[in-house]
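Running low. Any example?
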Amino acid sequence: MIPHRQPSIARLAAVLLSLVVAATILCTWTLVIALQGDDGLLAQYDAAKAIKASLSRDAAGAPVVSPTSELDGIERTFPDLWYVVTTKGGTTHHGAVPASVRDGDTAAPDASAFSDSGDAMRLTNATVVTRLGGELVRIRVGGAAYSPAQAALSSLRDVNYTAIPILAVVVATILVALITVPALIARPVRRVSHSAECIDGASHGVRLPLEEAPRELVPMVAAFNRALERIEVASAGQRRFLSNAAHELRTPLTRIRTGLERVEDPHLRRTLVADIQSLSSTVTMLLQIARLSSDSPEMRRFDLVAAVRTTTAEHVPAALAAGVDIAFSGEGDAVFVTGSETAARIAVGNLLRNALQHARSGKSVLVEVRSPGTVLVIDHGEGVGDGARTEMLQPFARGQASDGTGLGLALVAQVMAMHGGSVAMDETPGGGLTVTLTF
């Protein structure tokens, strides 16, 4: 299980990309404004706003400009600033007003010069027309021009025309990056992870595809493939040793079994023969496990009913010797599944040997095949406790039995894993064990 608090590379990359893009947008906008510079209109507009904010009228209706911190800052920034404020009640001015402006039109603006309502400001040719308490006011400004840096800062302070659009673009960029970047980074990683999930103990020679891995993951994928190669080499060596050892044991066991016939004591002979048979069964199962592990069985469609019926018929003599009735039930004429018929017969054969070994004399063992691909082996023996059923699928786990090899159910589990199927064990009504194989 992956810890929830593990750092996410995709999320970190998305955040960093968002910050970089946001900073790039802000810097680009500032640079564009700085390169364009200021032809004076922007500074004059800001100065006019400061003048309007400090403007009032005296008793005669003449304009009065009172000192304010904002206006003082404008005057310090632009030492050559001059302005002329004209209303119906009179005119006031500041700074070195050019003669052309001083001697020009000093009449108050009429309604045709300003059709906007409210306190809006209109700047035209260094002249601002606005309203003050319902009365039109003309403010002429000059001697003010921003440097490129000042123009950029002033444009960013203009919330309506600059800050809000830039902020909207930055926020949209961050949201898009946070959503798309993790998805783009995680998609190839998930493909590689899915390929790794498909590799199991029976996937000999299967490797993670390097061509599907992003360039950053190629070293890790290559290292994983090399690790798989080393594991397969070690596993193949173990399987060869197991197969060779089991094969070499069969010949001396056969000679011992023949020699036991010369033992005169009947009781001792029966005991020794039973031990030899147990050893032979263990060796046979070890050989089966080694062959299933080392070989990749051919997977093809076969008739599960026919395969299980044949395997059941092979165990009829053993059932008669044990005094147990054995029966077969197949649903329909044929049930076709895809897999290894040999491996399936090995699994069913091991279940039948276990069932015959633990079934009570006079009882029955039923083998049933159901569609679309299920085999049930039902006995009426001692059964297996709920807590021990999972352990019984491990090698050499014998449960309540005292004389089994402990390999039969482990071999069955291996066969079903090879087919992508499952093994289920349940209690038989009335006592016993029901094993269900689902292909």
